[in-house]
Design a protein that fits this description.
The complex is a heterodimer.
Chain A (H helix, E strand, L loop, with lengths): L2 E3 L6 H6 L8 E6 L2 E8 L2 E8 L3 H19 L7 H7 L6 E2 L2 H16 L9 H6 L12 H8 L7 E4 L4 E4 L12 H15 L4 E6 L2 E6 L7 E6 L7 E7 L3 E6 L4 E3 L5 E3 L14 E8 L2 H14 L1 H8 L6 E6 L4 E4 L6 E3 L5 E4 L1
Parallel strand pairs in A: 17-19
Antiparallel strand pairs in A: 1-2, 2-3, 3-4, 4-8, 5-7, 6-7, 8-9, 9-12, 10-11, 11-18, 12-15, 13-14, 15-16, 16-17
Chain B lengths: L1 H32 L14 E7 L9 E8 L2 E10 L9 H11 L6 E3 L5 H17 L1
Antiparallel strand pairs in B: 1-2, 2-3
The chains are: A alpha+beta, B alpha+beta.
């Protein structure tokens, strides 16, 4: 096994916009025909497995791209563009780069299509529930109402010409938790394509980006975590050139004295964790950002409204896990889904 | 006296017959025990319908033929095409086939929805430790 540090390759333009920051983990491994890398970024672990002669170079570029996006999009880095937008809420819009503008534009489009189940200005609620910072805690209802009043994607002002972004009211804030890793996933796919990679997959904290097919020509097999048993899969999907993203109530949650589970996926219309009867939603789509945003939106929307929403995204399918562990899959996955042991599933036409 | 002799002959005949019979049964058991059932890599199945024959038993009296259907890399159906097994009428082969279908392992390349799987975590820690030795 050969170990080697991944040196992030950046263009001069990129260098000017970021603070030099190394990944916490940045090592590559060679195992047979593939090369693997792991890094810590965006608050989670990113891992990559790449096949082909350009594997090493592509991994260096991928790790560099993730590092760069993390520095732009993390609201927890004081000098990120998102943090600057949030600090300037209620004042003048702040200049941003084209990529931050692109992800905010896409996020706005999602919230317009599903205003009750997706909001990029969900920051005040995320802060209130302490998601991503400490363990989840249940806030007072009055505070939830107050924070909910600040959530409104219509208050996000985007100027594509400068480009710039701002928030109309003080106290508002942008949070890309439901779309940022997806956006990064699409950039990783671009990096691999640019490097001529035909077989690779990236796992960005549970968001999977599969590039091409396996070197033996078979589809990649992506397992779907069982929402109630960490040692099991509820099933797996076979994919070629697809992304798969799962939103589940099991990823970060606390249980109160009554035994109720409070998870991290908030319903922007109520200010509380979503309670749609679903405990996990996996979206399989050609685009990682679509998969990421939709996984959250469908989880919040529930199965009926979720299916209506899916109709707007051709080539995109979903695996729904109900609270009684029944599994429903959309028709496009009919021949690509394999259920785990003791799991029953129905195909929705 | 004759009675004892006849009884002894009967016991001897039965013993010899039992011994011969047991040796046949033992051969059957040995054959069954040594059947290699681990030659299939369930992660690398090609799609199609495949015909399989096993000519089992010392007089091939357990010969059976089946058809296995593979769709999208997984076994979706197994049908018994024919069987010479004298106990085949009572054999619950359907249950056995169902177990093969459900027990085929979900071998996957990676997992979605596992934000911090223990493996990924340990792998990252291992990488960090190896990397730290290089500095």
């Amino acid at each position: 096994m050969v170990q080697n540090r991944v040196a992030a390759r950046r263009s001069d333009a990129d260098r000017s916009s970021i603070r030099a920051r190394r990944c916490t983990l940045d090592a590559t491994q060679e195992s047979g025909p593939s090369v693997r890398a792991t890094q810590f970024a965006m608050g989670t672990i990113m891992s990559y497995t790449v096949f082909g002669p350009a594997a090493r170079a592509s991994l260096a570029a991928a790790c560099g791209e993730i590092e760069r996006l993390d520095s732009l999009l993390s609201r927890f880095s004081a000098d990120s563009e998102i943090a600057r937008i949030n600090r300037g809420a209620g004042r003048e819009p702040v200049p941003i780069g084209p990529q931050t503008h692109a992800v905010l534009l896409e996020a706005s489009a999602f919230s317009r299509r599903c205003p009750d189940c997706f909001a990029v200005t969900v920051g005040p609620l995320v802060d209130l529930w302490n998601i991503g910072v400490k363990s989840l805690h249940r806030p007072d209802q009055s505070k939830i109402e107050q924070a909910r009043g600040l959530v409104n994607d219509g208050d996000l002002i985007l100027d594509p010409l400068k480009p710039s972004a701002g928030l109309r009211r003080a106290g508002q804030s942008v949070d890309l938790g439901a779309i940022g890793k997806g956006f990064a996933g699409d950039r990783i796919r671009e990096v691999f394509h640019r490097c001529g990679i035909r077989a690779a997959y990236a796992n960005l904290g549970g968001n999977v980006v599969a590039v091409g097919s396996r070197p033996d020509g078979l589809p990649w097999r992506i397992g779907i975590q069982h929402p109630r048993d960490t040692d099991r899969l509820i099933g797996c999907v076979s994919v070629v050139d697809r992304s798969a993203v799962t939103s589940g109530d099991y990823q970060r949650y606390v249980t109160d004295s009554r035994g109720n589970r409070h998870h991290h996926i908030l319903d922007p219309s109520t200010g509380y964790p979503a309670d749609s009867g679903l405990i996990s939603v996996t979206v399989v789509s050609p685009g990682a950002m679509v998969a990421d945003a939709l996984a959250t939106a469908l989880f919040v929307a529930g199965i009926e409204r979720g299916l209506e929403l899916l109709e707007h995204y051709p080539g995109t399918d979903a695996v729904f896990v109900h609270s009684d562990l029944r599994v429903s899959i959309t028709a496009g996955l009919k021949h690509r889904f394999q259920a785990g042991q003791n799991t029953e599933f129905t195909i929705m036409d | 006296m004759n009675g004892w002799l006849i009884a002894l002959i009967i016991v001897a005949v039965l013993g010899a017959g039992g011994g011969i019979g047991w040796s046949y049964i033992a051969r059957e058991h040995r054959e069954a025990r040594s059947l290699p059932l681990d030659a299939v890599d369930f992660s690398k199945l090609e799609d199609g319908t495949f015909h399989g024959v096993y000519e089992g038993g010392i007089y091939k009296w357990r010969t059976n033929e089946c058809e296995v259907t593979v769709q999208n890399g997984k076994v979706t159906d197994i049908r018994l095409a024919s069987s010479k097994d004298p106990g085949g009428e009572n054999a619950d082969f359907r249950m056995l086939y169902d177990r093969v279908i459900t027990a085929q392992s979900l071998q996957v390349d990676t997992i979605t929805g596992a934000t911090l799987t223990s493996k990924a975590y340990l792998q990252a820690v291992e990488n960090a430790l190896v990397e730290s030795k290089r500095e």
